[in-house]
Amino acid sequence: MKRMFWAATLVATLCLALAAPVAAADPSRPFGGHDRVVDTFVTPTTCPAGALWRYVGTGTGVFLHLGNATVSLTHCTFVDFASGTGTFGPGTVTLTAANGDELHLVHSGAFSLVMTPDGLASVFDMTWVVAGGTGRFAGATGAGTTHGSSLLSTGTTAASYEGEIAY
Question: Residue 34 belongs to what domain range?
Answer without folding.
Answer: 27-166
